[in-house]
Amino acid sequence: MADTKRKKILLINHYAGSPAMGMEFRPYYLAREWVKMGHRVDILAADFSHLRTENPKVDHDFSYEMIDGIRYHWVRTRTYDGNGAARAITMEQFLRKLWFAAKKISRKLEPDVIITSSTYPLDTFVGQRLRKTAKHAKLIHEVHDMWPATLIEVGGMSKRNPFTVAMQIGENSAYRNSDLVVSLPPLTEPYMREHGLEEGKWHHIPNGIVEEEWADPEPLPEEHRELLSRLRERGRFTVGYFGGHALSNALDVLLDAAAKAEERSSRASFVLVGDGVEKEALQEKAKQMGLKEVYFLPKVPKKAVPSLVEWFDCSYVGAKNSSLYRFGLCMNKIFDSMMAGKPILCAISTPDDIITRNGAGVMVPSDAPEAIDAAVEAWEKAPAEELRQMGEQAHRAAVEKYTYRKLAEDFSTLF
């Protein structure tokens, strides 16, 4: 049982958002649960983020706003597009302002717990400075993405690039100097130990699901409901995907699998819901391949995802083969698919077995359309009861392990 003693929690996340503003959501959902548990939560975030659909209107630094019991403090930064130098400048602005205001922040907020949680690791230096000025505060570093490994292995940046070097210095310092480290990916401990983390300081707390969104979801747009109901009436086995349409999502491989399914006169239909830079190219590829049972639909609001997945017979999650998946999986769509009670076809090469461990579906290698088609064919022929039981196991695992209420309770034991 989590310690219910009231704590003053200070969470630093450059990109923190809320359901009304948009991503990123994890800081909001955890903070909201901590507030319900009786803790006080202050979030330090930048006033501009490329992840949000709406940014707060701020005319001075540390502008204060209360959102659902969470105390947000907005730091003014410049706007930017993409991942170039302008975004790096906003990181410097955000951290510099926090650095010079650290003593004032500590005196005003008096945190018991400081959580550094931005995508990039440089916020650890602000966290360490705040810990020095706050009495008895514990510093927890939360890792969402593996920077600078992502920059090097996916982004192609040189290890000698000054930006990469700075991130590596920050990462090493975070592991060496934080009281605890929380990792969203499940298989990071050996890497972190190599970079200075002491034994016993590593904890895994993944992403999760929000129960009330599933109790009262938004309805589907008419376009989506019309297509999906038509496929069901035709007795099609619907393989559904929802999310970004980028190279990393390996949707071209899913189209190759769809082609193999059509070659064998399968009753499978493939529905891709979302937007992204590769969507037009994927639509053109499907057209050139003459695929008759591949359908593209616009993205839906996050709160409509439960209504969408309900129409799928199975949910597809895929990714290009990448060395980064040695650290495991922490994709939100995995937990959404589990909560929906749908079998998951996960096409990612990784030692992480979250899908099979929870009896939630099957895992096949990345970039393997033959394996995807084989899994689809097996499920097409499987008794409906078998798929229903698999879906029930997935749903049960989501409710028991991956709600934000449960994750916030697990996190609070570290305070």
Characterise this structure:
There is one protein chain. The chain is an alpha/beta fold and 415 residues long. Helix content is 41%, strand content 17%. The chain contains 17 helices and 14 strands. The chain has helices at 26-36, 85-100, 102-109, 123-133, 149-153, 162-177, 189-194, 211-215, 222-233, 251-263, 279-289, 305-309, 332-339, 354-357, 369-381, 384-401, 404-412, and strands at 8-12, 40-46, 63-67, 70-75, 113-116, 138-143, 180-183, 202-204, 237-242, 268-273, 294-297, 314-318, 344-347, 361-364. The strands form two sheets. It has an eight-stranded mixed sheet.
What's the total count of β strands? Answer: 14
Helical region count? Answer: 17
Helix content: 40-55%
Structural class: alpha/beta
* Radius of gyration (Å): 22 Å
**Strand fraction:** 15-25%
Keywords:
415 residues, alpha/beta, eight-stranded mixed sheet, six-stranded parallel sheet, 14 strands, 41% helix, globular
Summed up:
With 415 residues, this protein is of the alpha/beta class. It is built from 17 helices and 14 strands. The strands form two sheets. Strands 3-4-2-1-5-6-7-8 form an eight-stranded mixed beta sheet. It has a six-stranded parallel beta sheet with strand order 11-10-9-12-13-14, sandwiched between helices.
List the helices and strands and how they pair.
Blueprint: E1 8-12, H1 26-36, E2 40-46, E3 63-67, E4 70-75, H2 85-100, H3 102-109, E5 113-116, H4 123-133, E6 138-143, H5 149-153, H6 162-177, E7 180-183, H7 189-194, E8 202-204, H8 211-215, H9 222-233, E9 237-242, H10 251-263, E10 268-273, H11 279-289, E11 294-297, H12 305-309, E12 314-318, H13 332-339, E13 344-347, H14 354-357, E14 361-364, H15 369-381, H16 384-401, H17 404-412
Parallel strand pairs: 1-2, 1-5, 2-4, 5-6, 6-7, 7-8, 9-10, 9-12, 10-11, 12-13, 13-14
Antiparallel strand pairs: 3-4
Helix pairs in contact: 1-17, 3-4, 4-6, 10-11, 10-15, 13-16
